[in-house]
Amino acid sequence: MQQITGHTVGGIEVSAFDSLAACARRILEDAHTGRGGFAVAINAEKVISSYQDRTLRDLIRRATLRYPDGAGVVVALRLKGTRSVRVAGADLWLEILHEARDERLPIALIGASPRVLAATRGRLAAEFPRADVVVARDGYEGARDPDAILTALERTRPQVVFVAMGSPRQEQLIERLRRGYPQAFYLGLGGSFDVYCGSKRRAPRWMQRSGLEWLFRFLSEPSRAPRETKRLRFLLMLAARRL
Predict the structure, then answer these.
(1) Which of 38, 51, 112, 124 has its CA 20 to 30 A from that of 187?
(2) Helix (H/G/I), strand (E/B), else coil: 17
């Protein structure tokens, strides 16, 4: 499986992949070599937010890998002649651990509530015993002191750092940590820890495959309505071939 050359979507360069595993292996390669990196999930909301927020747009462009997390982004790539699978962040971090299952992989977990973080660590220990959690900080009190986190990273030297705090807060923290410890590969995961430990439900598989996971999230959390206006704007721009 190989990475495929990507295109820009809304002015953001997005890498295309022919499988979830190919993206995971790309990240592990950068992690193992000490080259490190920073991956950002690109979806409709993030594309539109980047138009409205120059700081966010610049941050996204500084990432070393931008992968197509949203179905709309996959369609936009296809319209430009590039086929790609959808790489959902909630699946990607677990695929990374699966690809590294036969080796010790030192990792850091940052984000979620203390209860969710503890449950995530417990399940990972059972399912991925070779994944060595060398740093764990919740997204509340545990994330208040980035300098303390950085000190822990430098001391324990994880190869992959998973940050589950929501965007753009997680990306901002990642950039700060990378300045002091750039050898690791950093991956922002949003609410993936909550989903993994069962604190939040994910859309049924058929909705994920049909590109309707956003609809499930909206129906589950009506408060997301203002965010869905960005998805509508993205779809209108996609229809007009303005992305």
Answers:
(1) 51
(2) strand
